[in-house]
Amino acid sequence: MESFAAWLKGLRTAGRFRRLPVIDRPAPGRVTEQQGRQLHDFASNDYLALAHDPRLAAAAQAAIERYGTGAGAARLMSGDLPPHRCLEQAAAALVAKERALVFGSGYLANTGIIPALIGRHGVVLTDRLNHASIYDGCRLAGARMLRFRHNDCDHLEALLRQHSGRPALVVVESVYSMDGDFAPLADIVALKKRYGFLLMVDEAHAVGLYGPEGGGRVREMGLSAEVDLVLGTFGKALGSYGAFVAAGPMLIDVLINRARTFIFSTALPPATAAASQAAIEVVRADPSLRSELAGRSQWFKQALSRHGIETSSPSQIVPVIVGRDDAAVAAAQTLCQRGFYVTAVRPPTVPPGTARLRFTITLHHTASRLEEAAAALAEALIP
Ligand SMILES: *Cc1c(COP(=O)(O)O)cnc(C)c1O
Questions:
Q1: What letter does residue 24 receive in the DSSP assignment?
Q2: Is the minimum distance from the CB of 131 to ligand 1 under 6 angstroms?
């Protein structure tokens, strides 16, 4: 216990102590914090404002009436219900793959899929900026984990050459969650043709937002056939909860038989699956959602630029690098006083010295709100 106390004290001194923000949600797109102030939420991944969409709520309510609030068991036991199977068909169609398998969450998907596909004799090549769930999946696999420099295909190729002859899995994100930039998917697919590895792309921040019908970046780039596994989550742009992986039938059968986070975990509540399926139908039918989000993201970056703040993100995730941890926290506090809820992302989530404010743009933000947020940030950054 002694050492826990010392450890926590160390975190506090270093400005890295994490605490839960005490908030409530008085209205979609807003949060209230301790003093009761209403803030505009720039930390949520509810990009398309679907978490409050009546069509999702109606689908969830209908499923609750029919199936109750819980699935009752894992899918391989008696938890497998029509909403799960319908959702898998919709998810596979969305990303243009043959089949899909639903997991409890993106974290469970990555920690189940990677060990199911690669064992102790294999290697996993992972972009340095990949999500923690991908790292944890690599650890559970017991495979040799080789990290390549962010978006650096030359480094990836050098590692592939060095370790040729071993089963290899390459994992990247299509839109990086903390930097908001895109993976060079075409170049990675070109390497796959030469070196023959399994390729998984985590589209947690891209499904619903890019490509035809919101099918993601892999589909947008016409690479659905080349990418072996496309992972998507339902908790971000799709306004619900859970995740899926889409692949060919053989890989899906492998996962059903081997992925421990699928086999040994209770199926998603049917209402959650039904809400996710309704969300897929909404995004497939309405291209204006994603074009509107792209427009607002662009607008925010232009507003920042008018205030002399440059950011290179091409997406709806707009990081503003501050540098020092305490400076990032101070800027987030100033923004909070001005009515904007933004998270300061610090090490170890991001590399040391790159503490940042991470703005996520959603359809809750109007153009004038975005302009106000940019102006507030400019003031907050004045030393
Ligand atoms: C959010 C996220 C996950 C985890 O998904 P959850 O459904 O929230 O568990 C996995 N991968 C990436 C890239 C993410 O951004």
A1: B
A2: yes
Are residues 162 and 230 located together in one domain of the fold? yes
Would the pLDDT of 15 be above 80? no
Rounded to a whole number of angstroms, the CA Rg of the chain reads: 21
> Which residues form the domain of 336?
23-47+316-380
pLDDT at 197 over 90: yes
| pLDDT, mean over the chain | 95
Determine the atom of ligand 1 nearest the C-alpha atom of 130. Answer: 13
**CATH code of the domain containing 373:** 3.90.1150.10
Q: How far apart are CA 106 and CA 243, in angstroms?
A: 5
pLDDT more than 70, % of the chain? 99
Is residue 4 included in any domain, yes or no?
Answer: no
Q: Which residue has the tokens 């002694």?
A: 2
Q: Does residue 290 line the site of ligand 1, with CB under 6 A? A: no
CATH number at residue 102: 3.40.640.10
For residue 1, what pLDDT is reported? 58
151 is catalytic: no
Instruction: Indicate yes or no: pTM above 0.85.
Output: yes
Rounded to whole angstroms, the Cα distance separating 322 from 342 reads 13
CA-nearest residue, atom 6 of ligand 1: 106
Question: Quick one: 275 and 344 in the same domain?
Answer: no
* Domains contained in the chain, number: 2
Q: Is residue 80 part of a domain?
A: yes
Contacts of 285 by beta carbon, 8 Å cutoff, 6+ apart: none
Of the ranges 16-20, 122-126, 206-210, 239-243, which one carries the lowest mean pLDDT score? 16-20
The answer on 73 and 89 residing in a single domain is: yes
Establish whether 45 is a catalytic residue: yes
Q: In the predicted model, what is the mean pLDDT of residues 200-216? A: 98
Q: Is the peptide bond before 348 cis (omega within 30 degrees of 0)?
A: yes
What is the model's pLDDT at position 34? 77
